[in-house]
C-alpha cells in the first residue's frame, strides 16, 4: 500500500496531492533558509496566522456577490492581502515603537488570528452554507482537492522557486551581513521585503495542503536540519529544498496510504524525523560527532598524562589511563612499562622539555601560543628549529649525588 | 439588562475571561521585557498534544489529568527547546519553531487517530475555547450570589481560574524584587547571588500554569493575545515596571470585558441573530488597544531615537 502510494499508484487525487505537496515542500525549504539565516524564522508564524481574516473576508465577499465562496484563487488572494497587512503592521511596530520583534510577531499573530476566528463565527451565523471548507485552512485538507487547485499550487510553487533563483545572491548577502550589504549600496529594506513576500507566497500556496498553523514548520524545520550538514549557504539552500521536498512527498504518500492520517501533520512529522537524523548524525555539527570528539580528546589527555608519569617513574592509579597504555602495549598488566612504553615516555618527556624551551623564548612566541599540551611539536616547528632547541637543552647531564 | 438574565448567562463567562486575561498578562510583562514573548505562543500550541495524551491515558474528559498532561507537555516543550538550542547551536526562535510545530502536529495526528467523536475534544475547541458555554444555570439573579445552594453549582472553571490568578499574583508579588533585577540586568542579578536560571525557569513554568488553566476555559488564542498585547500596550504608556504592570492589568480587564460584551451583544445591535466568538473578539479588542497605544502612547519610541526612524 505504501509502495503504491510512493509510486503514485493510488489514484488521481492522491497523485495530485503528492505532486503539489512536493513542489510546496521544495519552495518552502528554499525560502525558509533565507529567513532562518536572517534569524527571523518566527516571522513566518505571524504571516501564516495573519492569512485567516483574509480568507474569511474573501469568502464573505464572494458569497455575498452570489458566487461560490470556496473559489480557491479568490480565497488565496484574500489571504495574501491580509497577510501583507499583517506584515506591514509587524514592520511598523518594530520600526516605530520600542517593541522588540518577538513581541510584534506575537501581537500580530494573536490579533489577526483572533479577528479571523470572529469572522469564522460570523460566516457560520450568516448561514450561507457550504462554508465547511474554511476550517480546512486551519490544518489543511487535501481530501477534496480539484485539478484547478493542484494547478494553482503547482504554478505558485514554481513561480516562487524561479523568483528565489533570481534574487538569491542579494538575499544571501543581506541574511549574513545587512550592514555590509547596505554599504555596498544594496536596498536592504527592499530585499527584506522581497524575502517576506516570498515567505508570504509560500504560506498562501501551502494553506490548502498543510494549513496555516503548520506551514510554519515547513519553512523552519528543513532549513534548520540542512544547516547541520554544511557550512556553505548555497548547499544549505539546496539541501533544505531537497529535505522539504522529500518530507512533503513521503508525507503526502503516507497520508494517502491509510485512513485518519491527515496530510499536514504527517508532512511536519516527516520533516522532524529528518531534523532528528541531522541533529544526531550530521558530521562535525551533529551530537554524535560532538560526543566522539569529546572521547577522542579525553583519550589524548589521558595518554599524555600517562606517558609523562611513566617517564618520571611515578605510579599510575587512574583506570582509564592504565587501560589505554596497556592497549597500546606501553605497560604490562602489572603496571610496569615495556621497552616500547619507555621509548614513547622518553619522547613525551623530551617533547615537554622542548616545549618548555620554546615557551620561554620570545623568538618562538607564535609557536608557543599554539601549546595546549596535546599538540606534537613536530607539527609546529621545522626539523632545524627542533635541532636548535635540542642544542639549547644540551646533552645528557650527570646527576649529582 | 436585568439581574435575572445577566447573572446566569454573562456573569461567570465575563469573570472567567477577566481572570484568565489578567493571569496571562501578569507574567507576560516579564516575558515581554526578557524578549521571551513567544514562549506563550509555543506553550499554547503544545498544550494540545498534552491534553490528547492525557485523554488517551485516562479515557475520559476530566479536568485534573488534562491539566497535568498540558502542564507536562509545556515542560517537555521548554526542555526540548533548550536542548535543541544547546545541542544544535541553533538560534532560540528557530528551535522554538521546530519544537512547537512538531508537537502540535503530533497532537493533531493523535487526535485524528483516536476515536474522539463521542467526546468534546477537537482542534477548533482547543483553539478558541467555548467561553460562552460556561454559564451558571442555577442562578436566578443577584441574590444567588449569597445562596450556597446555587453557588455550589458554579462552573468549576471559575474557582479554578480565580485560584490560578491568585497563585500567579502571589508568585509575582513574592519574587517582585528579584524578578525586576534579573529582568533588567541579569549579570548584576547573578553577582548579587540570585539564581537567575532557576528564576527564569520558574517564570516560564508560572506562565505555563496560567496558560494551561486559561486554555482549559477560554482556548489558546486568548492566551497568546493576553500574554503579549496588554503588556506591549502598557509598555507604550509607562517607563516604570510598576506602571507597566498596572496598565497591563487594566488593559487586560478592559479587553476581556469589552470583547465579551461586543461578541455577545454587538451582532444584536447590528441586527444579526447570533453572537460571534468571544475569544476571538477579546483578542481583537486587545489588538485595537495595542494599536491605539502604539500610535499615541507617551513612551512609544525607543528612548533616544527620534520618531519615525
TrEMBL record, chain A:
Alphabetic keyword roster: Cell membrane, Membrane, Transmembrane, Transmembrane helix, Transport
A Pfam short name: ABC-3
Subcellular localization(s) per the UniProt record: Cell membrane
SUPFAM superfamilies, alphabetized: ABC transporter involved in vitamin B12 uptake, BtuC
Top-rank taxon, per record: Bacteria
Membrane topology according to the record: Multi-pass membrane protein
Name of this protein: Zinc ABC transporter permease
Segments crossing the lipid bilayer: 12-37, 49-66, 72-93, 105-126, 146-167, 236-254, 266-292
Family statement drawn from the similarity comment of this UniProt entry: Belongs to the ABC-3 integral membrane protein family.
PANTHER family (UniProt xref): ABC-TRANSPORTER METAL-BINDING PROTEIN, METAL TRANSPORT SYSTEM MEMBRANE PROTEIN CT_069-RELATED
UniProtKB/TrEMBL annotation, chain B:
Transmembrane segments: 6-26, 38-57, 63-81, 93-111, 161-178, 198-215, 221-238, 245-263, 275-294
Swiss-Prot/TrEMBL keywords: Cell membrane, Membrane, Transmembrane, Transmembrane helix, Transport
Annotated InterPro entries: ABC_BtuC-like, ABC_TroCD
Subcellular localization: Cell membrane
Membrane topology: Multi-pass membrane protein
Keyword Transport: yes
Domain of life: Bacteria
The family this protein is said to belong to: Belongs to the ABC-3 integral membrane protein family.
Protein's UniProt name: Zinc ABC transporter permease
Species name: Parasedimentitalea denitrificans
Amino acid at each position: 500500500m505504501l509502495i503504491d502510494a510512493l509510486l503514485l499508484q493510488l489514484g488521481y487525487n492522491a497523485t495530485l496531492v503528492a505532486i503539489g505537496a512536493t513542489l510546496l515542500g521544495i519552495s518552502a525549504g528554499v525560502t525558509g533558509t533565507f529567513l532562518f539565516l536572517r534569524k527571523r524564522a518566527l516571522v513566518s508564524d505571524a504571516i501564516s496566522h495573519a492569512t485567516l481574516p483574509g480568507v474569511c473576508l474573501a469568502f464573505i465577499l464572494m458569497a455575498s456577490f452570489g458566487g461560490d465562496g470556496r473559489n480557491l484563487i479568490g480565497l488565496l488572494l484574500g489571504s495574501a492581502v491580509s497577510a501583507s497587512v499583517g506584515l506591514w503592521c509587524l514592520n511598523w511596530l518594530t520600526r516605530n515603537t520600542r517593541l522588540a520583534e518577538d513581541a510584534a510577531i506575537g501581537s500580530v499573530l494573536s490579533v489577526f488570528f483572533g479577528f479571523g476566528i470572529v469572522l469564522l463565527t460570523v460566516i457560520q451565523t450568516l448561514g450561507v452554507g457550504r462554508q465547511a471548507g474554511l476550517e480546512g485552512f486551519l490544518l489543511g485538507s487535501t481530501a477534496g482537492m480539484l485539478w484547478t487547485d493542484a494547478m494553482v499550487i503547482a504554478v505558485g510553487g514554481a513561480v516562487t522557486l524561479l523568483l528565489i533563483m533570481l534574487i538569491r545572491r542579494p538575499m544571501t548577502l543581506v541574511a549574513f551581513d545587512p550592514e555590509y550589504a547596505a554599504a555596498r549600496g544594496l536596498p536592504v529594506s527592499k530585499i527584506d521585503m522581497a524575502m517576506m513576500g516570498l515567505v508570504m507566497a509560500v504560506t498562501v500556496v501551502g494553506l490548502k495542503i498543510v494549513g496555516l498553523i503548520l506551514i510554519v514548520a515547513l519553512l523552519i524545520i528543513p532549513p534548520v536540519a540542512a544547516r547541520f550538514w554544511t557550512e556553505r549557504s548555497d548547499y544549505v539552500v539546496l539541501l533544505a529544498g531537497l529535505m522539504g521536498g522529500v518530507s512533503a512527498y513521503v508525507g503526502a504518500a503516507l497520508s494517502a496510504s491509510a485512513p485518519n492520517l491527515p496530510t499536514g501533520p504527517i508532512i511536519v512529522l516527516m520533516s522532524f524525523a529528518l531534523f532528528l537524523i541531522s541533529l544526531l548524525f550530521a558530521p562535525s555539527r551533529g551530537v554524535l560527532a560532538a560526543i566522539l570528539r569529546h572521547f577522542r580528546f579525553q583519550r589524548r589527555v589521558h595518554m599524555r598524562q600517562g606517558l609523562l608519569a611513566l617517564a618520571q617513574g611515578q605510579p599510575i592509579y587512574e583506570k582509564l589511563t592504565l587501560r589505554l597504555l596497556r592497549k597500546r602495549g606501553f605497560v604490562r598488566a602489572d603496571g610496569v612499562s615495556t621497552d616500547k612504553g619507555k621509548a614513547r615516555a622518553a619522547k613525551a618527556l623530551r617533547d615537554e622539555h622542548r616545549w618548555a624551551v620554546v615557551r620561554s623564548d620570545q623568538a618562538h612566541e607564535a609557536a608557543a601560543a599554539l601549546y595546549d599540551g596535546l599538540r606534537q611539536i613536530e607539527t609546529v616547528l621545522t626539523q632545524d628549529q627542533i635541532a636548535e632547541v635540542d642544542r639549547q637543552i644540551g646533552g645528557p647531564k650527570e646527576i649529582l649525588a | 439588562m436585568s439581574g435575572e438574565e445577566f447573572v446566569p448567562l454573562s456573569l461567570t463567562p465575563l469573570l472567567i475571561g477577566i481572570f484568565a486575561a489578567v493571569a496571562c498578562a501578569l507574567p507576560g510583562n516579564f516575558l515581554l521585557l526578557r524578549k521571551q514573548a513567544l514562549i506563550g505562543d509555543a506553550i499554547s500550541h503544545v498544550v494540545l498534544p498534552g491534553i490528547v495524551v492525557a485523554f488517551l491515558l485516562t479515557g475520559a474528559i476530566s479536568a485534573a489529568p488534562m491539566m497535568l498532561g498540558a502542564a507536562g507537555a509545556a515542560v517537555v516543550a521548554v526542555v526540548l527547546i533548550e536542548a535543541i538550542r544547546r545541542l544544535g547551536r541553533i538560534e532560540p526562535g528557530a528551535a522554538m519553531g521546530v519544537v512547537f510545530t512538531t508537537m502540535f502536529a503530533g497532537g493533531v495526528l493523535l487526535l485524528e487517530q483516536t476515536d474522539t467523536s463521542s467526546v468534546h475534544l477537537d482542534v477548533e475547541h482547543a483553539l478558541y475555547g467555548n467561553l460562552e458555554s460556561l454559564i451558571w444555570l442555577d442562578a436566578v439573579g443577584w441574590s444567588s450570589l449569597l445562596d450556597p445552594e446555587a453557588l455550589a453549582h458554579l462552573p468549576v472553571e471559575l474557582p479554578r481560574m480565580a485560584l490560578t490568578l491568585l497563585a500567579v499574583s502571589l508568585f509575582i508579588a513574592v519574587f517582585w524584587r528579584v524578578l525586576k533585577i534579573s529582568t533588567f540586568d541579569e549579570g548584576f542579578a547573578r553577582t548579587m547571588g540570585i539564581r537567575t536560571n532557576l528564576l527564569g525557569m520558574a517564570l516560564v513554568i508560572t506562565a505555563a500554569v496560567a496558560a494551561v488553566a486559561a486554555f482549559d476555559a477560554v482556548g489558546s488564542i486568548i492566551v497568546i493575545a493576553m500574554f503579549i498585547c496588554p503588556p506591549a500596550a502598557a509598555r507604550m504608556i509607562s517607563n516604570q515596571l510598576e506602571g507597566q504592570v498596572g496598565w497591563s492589568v487594566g488593559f487586560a480587564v478592559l479587553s476581556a470585558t469589552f470583547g465579551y460584551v461586543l461578541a455577545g451583544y454587538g451582532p444584536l445591535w447590528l441586527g444579526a441573530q447570533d453572537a460571534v466568538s468571544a475569544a476571538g473578539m477579546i483578542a481583537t479588542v486587545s489588538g485595537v488597544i495595542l494599536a491605539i497605544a502604539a500610535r499615541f502612547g507617551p513612551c512609544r519610541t525607543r528612548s533616544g531615537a527620534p520618531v519615525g526612524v
